[in-house]
């Protein structure tokens, strides 16, 4: 179960650090996939990028939420 975290006397949702971590992981994965040329073979690159981020965030959120 997710709870709030106390950060400098502010209550922050516990999904916020997971979101920030997923943003960093997504940025690294996006750069690597862009350099390898994968986006030339994808039908809709923007949709692929959104689905990549949603998959990362939901997967990590479900794993850490147990």
Automatic annotation (TrEMBL):
- One short Pfam family name for this protein? DUF1656
- Source taxon at top rank: Bacteria
Cross-referenced InterPro entries: DUF1656 (IPR012451)
Q: Where are the transmembrane segments?
A: 7-29, 41-64
- Keywords assigned by UniProt? Cell membrane, Membrane, Transmembrane, Transmembrane helix
In Swiss-Prot or TrEMBL terms, this protein is called Protein AaeX
Query: Upper lineage ranks?
Result: Bacteria, Pseudomonadati, Pseudomonadota, Betaproteobacteria, Burkholderiales
